[in-house]
Amino acid sequence: MGSRSFMLALIVPILTISFITTAVANFYQDFDITWGDGRAKILNNGKLLTLSLDKASGSGFQSKNEYLFAKIDMQLKLVPGNSAGTVTAYYLSSQGPTHDEIDYEFLGNLSGDPYILHTNVFTQGKGNREQQFYLWFDPTADFHTYSILWNPQRIIFSVDGTPIREFKNSESIGVPYPKNQPMRIYSSLWNADDWATRGGLVKTDWTQAPFTASYQNFGSDACVWSSGSSSCNSSTWLNEELDAAEQERLQWVQKNYMIYNYCTDSKRFPQGFPPECTNSA
Ligand SMILES: *[C@@H]1O[C@H](CO)[C@@H](O)[C@H](O)[C@H]1NC(C)=O
Ligand SMILES: *[C@@H]1O[C@H](CO)[C@@H](O)[C@H](O)[C@H]1NC(C)=O
């Protein structure tokens, strides 16, 4: 019911649809470099962005816009070679103690050992909803597309168009859902060798620094938040859900590539799993 009245609030802006295909993504237009003292760079007339990390500092950027619901794609090429100890984060987040957040984190590894793709969803300041995956390709050899669909009914994480995780709106069973707080896109590359690789056993090898991750082809179909209201360029994705073929792909990933799921970690939840676990794919 809550989400229905919220949808009504969206209808007016949706009527002013101006469907936009950004011909060439431009990092100057959409993002600001926020930290790293020159370690983050926008290159090739705005078509490429690189983050780097050395012993003194990592680096990061954020979107100029805030969004209330979005469908966003970004191509990332992760730190190659010995990336153990490094973490590349790419996420949506709102502000404050009861913030919402939708996270991708890429945990580096020794050359030839697999990255972990770590995901989490925070609602009203509460996370603890980790799912982790190996990838079915080497994420350092080339650019791959990491997408987030965030609409009033669901959050879908996809890699190269294959859904890997769905977080459904479970407000009907008492689980808060992100739908009132606008979020910004953030990304950063930093040192997390106290936990990232094999749980912190493998440390960052600083002789390999600087470590570099690259970004290109940002695309968005989003509701941009401005002075207290949100306006959407296209509305079809606001009701998007997984079709049968996508459900099958999701099952395939979860069966073959998922290495951790909080919803099956019975040691962690001896009193019973969080309620949304009964409502997840
Ligand atoms: C790194 O490689 C080891 C050995 O294959 C594996 O257990 C671990 O999950 C990999 N990823 C990370 C981030 O530790
Ligand atoms: C939506 O369209 C407006 C008007 O053309 C444009 O300024 C804005 O950047 C677009 N927003 C997104 C998220 O594509």
Number of beta strands: 15
CATH class: Mainly Beta
- What is the N-to-C succession of helices and strands? HHEEEEEEEEEEEEEEHE
Question: How much helicity do the residues have?
Answer: 10-25%
Q: Proportion of β residues?
A: 35-45%
- List each distinct ligand once: 2-acetamido-2-deoxy-beta-D-glucopyranose
Gyration radius (Cα, Å) is 19 Å
CATH topology: Jelly Rolls
Q: Ends: how far apart?
A: 22 Å
Apparent shape: globular
Main beta-sheet annotation: 15 strands, antiparallel
Summarize model confidence as the mean pLDDT: 92
The number of domains is 1
Please count the helical segments. Answer: 3
CATH architecture: Sandwich
| Low-confidence segments | 1-23
The assigned structural class equals: mainly beta
How would you summarize what this structure contains?
The protein has 281 residues and is mostly beta strands. The chain has three helices and 15 strands. The protein is globular, with a radius of gyration of 19 Å.
